[in-house]
Each structure stands twice: as C-alpha cells, then as structure tokens.
Amino acid sequence: MIKVLDEIEDLLGNRNLSDGSMRKAFEVEAVQTFDTGDCGIAEELNDKRMKCAQLLRKFKEDLQSIDLPTFKTREDLEEFCMKNSSIIFCSTNNSFHLREIQLKIDCLIIDSANLFNEYETLVPLCLPSLHSIILAGDEAKKPTVGNQVYQQDAFGVSLFQRLLDLGFNQHLLLDQYITGQHGRRVSSKSKVLKPEFTWIARPHNRKYILAPIRDQGPKAVTCVLHSSMATTESLYKLICASHDPPTDFNVILDIQDMLLQYKEETGYTYGDELRGERGQIRLEKALQTLKKRGVRGIDGCDNDKKMEQIRISSFRRIDIEAEGFEQIFERLLQGRMLVGSFKVSCNYFELAEGEVYHYDYARPIVRDGVTWSHAVMFVGFGDPAGDVLLDNHLAAIDTCDFELERMKHNSIGHLVYQNSYGKLFGFPHFRCGYGRVGLQSIVSMWEVTV
Q1: How far separated are the first and last CA of the chain, in Å rounded?
Q2: Whole-angstrom Cα distance, residue 269 to residue 219?
Q3: Which of the listed residues 185, 245, 417, 444 has the most CB atoms within 10 Å of its CB?
Q4: Structural domains of the chain sorted by starting position, each given as residue range(s) with its CATH number in brackets
Q5: If we measure between CA atoms, which residue out of 134, 172, 190 comes closest to residue 403?
Q6: Weakest mean pLDDT among 55-59, 138-142, 180-184, 420-424
Q7: Structure confidence by residue, pLDDT tens digits, 1-25
Q8: CA distance to 140, 143, 210, 326, per residue, from 119 (Å)
Q9: How many other CB atoms are there within 10 angstroms of residue 243's CB atom?
Q10: Largest Cα–Cα distance of the chain, in whole Å?
Q11: Which residues, including other chains, have CB under 8 Å from residue 336's CB and lie 6 or more apart?
C-alpha cells in the first residue's frame, strides 16, 4: 500500500500531467475503466488509484475477520495496542506509561538525545528488561537550559554528551535522511566530527587524573602558580592511578604556601619582579620553587590533616621547534600533563562556545610594555600524530575503534588546556574550566617529573 502511494506521489509530481488529465483520472469510479486517450500518465495514475481502492477493501475484509476484544475505555484500547506493537513511538516524559502497564522493552532508541538533559532521559531508562540503549544526536547542539544555577552545576548536560566525553563507543552516520521540501526524504552526507583527545572526564585505570579546577579570581595574576601546582597534582594522580590496585591522590597544593615559598626562593614577592623577569622567567621560577622547596599540601578529604611538602624531581623547557608537536601529543596520550603559556590578544575574551583561540597579532594585550601571556596546564590535543602513535597508546587507554579512526584521518591543530578561572570559563556544561588554543599560539611548554 505504501509503495503504491509513493508511486502516485511521483506521478502527481510529473510536469507533463495536465490539470484536465488529472481531473479526468480522479473523476471516474474506482471500479470502472476508461480510455484516457493520449495521456498515458493519467491512465497510469488511474490504475494506481484503483489498486489502492482494492487494497483498502481487502484490508477492511481482513480487519473484520480479526477477533478483537471489546474495549470499555480508551485507556484499554491504548494498552492493547501497545502490548501488541513491535515499535512504539513516544516522548521521554510519556514513556512512564510503558512502565505502568509493565511492558517489556528490549531496545530503547532516544533520538535527538543531545537535546535532552540527563534527568529527562532517566524516565525511559527506568523501563524494565532493557537490553540495548541507543542514543542518537548531534554533539554540536546542546540542551536549552534557562536556569543559570543548572548550568553552573552541570545539570544542563545531556547523557549523550557525557558519554561522549567519557569515551564510550560511538558510530557516525555517513549517510542520513532528513525531511526536505514537500516532505520528501533527502540524503545528507554527515560532516565527520573533528578529532580531539583529552583527559577531561577520562579515567586512567578507573581513576581520574586531572587536578581540580582552580579559581585565581578576576584580579589575581597567579596563573603561573596555579598551572604549575595543577600539573604537579595531576602527575601525582597519574602515579597513584598506575598502582596495582590503583589509589587516589587527594592532596591539593596550598596557594598561600606557594606564594611564601616563591618569595623565599627568589628573594622577592610574587608580582614584584622586574619587567623582564615576568612571563617565562616567572614560570621557570615557580617550577624551581616546587623542586627545591616544595609546597605544603592539603588533604582534599580532611582539611585539618597536615601534609608534608610536595615536590617535583625535575623540569625542563621543551624545544617545540626541535622536538615537534608529535612528541608533545605522545606525552599527553600517556597522561603526562604539561604546563605552558600562550600570548593573549583581545579576541581571547570574545570566543564563541567551543571555539579554538588563535593569537591575533593585530590586537595584542600589552601591560607595562610587555605582551600579556597566560599560563595553563595542557590536558589534551586536537591533532593526530600518526597511525603508529595512536595505535600504540589509544588502545591502552580504552579508546574505541571509531575514535581511533576519526583521529587518524582528521586534523584541527590545537591543544586543550585547564584554566585557573573557575568553572565559569570555557567549555559548556561539565567541561567548564577548559579551553582550546591553536598550536601556533603556544609560546612555551615545560615537562615536569615527580
């Protein structure tokens, strides 16, 4: 029946069919035959119309032969239809009716799952006897959340996006169908998603290894200290996660003690350096302080518990031009976070959601005659370093085959970093606190060993 209706639709769209011939084809009785003269399209249209009428009569006869129960209410009819259906379409909220009638569902498919908040998807996920769950959506589109509190506390995240960030298996539709003009289905080739590897919400040996996001405040210029301490904490977390069994490292380095130790090591208060000793020299001095003097740690689970000084064993500045970014990507794949800096221009504060920052030489931010630079901890990248590198490392950290192939054949050329401006900065939802910077904007990068 559907096939015949599609054929009628195609005939009606034929430009050679005149209005008079179409009226003639539809004005006759369904059981009659007639000569349409030289209009073959109208004759074929009439044949299809008559075939539809025959199918409808047969359907009516078959329906009368079915022994259907008598329904007293509309609810009884709906329950009967649902219990005898192979496929059921409904909204996420109305899916609770399926639980009320104790209907067993084998497979759940949530379309446009990227537009639903997590609490909305909990309703269908509570259905009993689910064996398979498929989430379909576009990660570029986010749920609409009007409440700012929800956004800050990550309640505006979709389950679809959260699973993507956790590295769950995903399949890209290379050929999908969308509704075009006149209700016709139009084939649309999907755009291959850009590759990106980060340690955001990615466990290593079942433990998360990124340091908590810091907030230096709007007026403080302590990004060098915060990024150095965050890198140190993350490297200690990596070591503890690599133990058998894995353990947690909950120590948070104290910024006040870091300021004190920095002054003891350098002989001057942080921020009072000479103009030429800021920027890269300041970052080197911070790492030197962590190596020679260490910084007092605070137990993240017990603030009253006294901790000994936390130190790093060594550090060195990476010669980016000599070593190339492939070596940097390899370190990040292994979980060896890096600390570094990039120059800041005015467009840094004008980025759209998810946009990669690139330094604008025409709009630099200059303070006291020096171009402002910003220190961060690098936690990922968006540029594949070759098949061999990815094959050796991504498989070891439970990266799915699809993500591996996606990263092999695409390049976007940036680093992902953890900032020190709290969770209001950067990526939307629970990725808040992170950003992206183009490779060509990187000024310096340091490797730290603990």
Answers
A1: 72
A2: 17
A3: 417
A4: 2-65 (no CATH), 74-165 (3.40.50.300), 197-449 (3.90.70.10)
A5: 172
A6: 180-184
A7: 888 888 888 877 776 767 777 676 6
A8: 20, 12, 26, 41
A9: 11
A10: 106
A11: 235, 238, 447
Q: 31 and 50 in contact (C-beta within 8 Å)?
A: yes
| Among 162, 100, 156, 175, residue whose Cα is nearest residue 135 | 162
Nearest to 351 by CA among 419, 407, 302: 419
Strands of 295-299's sheet, edge to edge? Answer: 251-253, 295-299, 302-310
pTM of the model: 0.57
**Any idea which residue has 């850009």 for tokens?**
194
Choose among 262, 264, 238: nearest CA to 249.
238
Choose among 214, 198, 222: nearest CA to 354. 198
Token code pair at residue 34: 């007639």
Task: Give the Cα separation of 372 and 282 in Å (integer).
Answer: 13
Structural contact between residues 137 and 121, judged by C-beta atoms closer than 8 angstroms: no
* Separation of alpha carbons 186 and 118, rounded Å: 31
DSSP category for residue 87: -
The whole-angstrom separation of Cα 122 and Cα 136 is: 16
